[in-house]
Amino acid sequence: MTEILLTIYKVLAYAIQIYSVVLIIYILMSWIPSTRETKFGKLIEKIAEPYLGFFRKFIPPLGMIDISPIVALFALSLISKGILEVFRMIILSSLR
């Protein structure tokens, strides 16, 4: 049972890290608008925009600066720490 929980924990941690990297790539692509028109750019947009769009509803841009991606990354970090901490507690309790 513990091995299964550890495997789920690791997969979740890697998935969150990969999604964070995808978000950062998407944010960096905004500096070069033509990159969003490529197939790769459209794929990254389909993956990242639903999550970032949620934050854009509540955080308007400040002039030409959009801080919602920063808040989105911070929120993802907090969410991942919370989820992973819950898994860690479950794993530790199952070892006792």
Automatic annotation (TrEMBL):
Keywords, sorted A to Z: Membrane, Transmembrane, Transmembrane helix
Pfam families (UniProt xref): CCB3_YggT (PF02325)
Cellular component terms per the entry's GO annotation: membrane
Top-rank taxon, per record: Bacteria
Transmembrane portions of the chain: 12-32, 58-79
InterPro entries: CCB3/YggT
Signal peptide: none
Family the UniProt entry places it in: Belongs to the YggT family.
Protein name according to UniProt: YGGT family protein
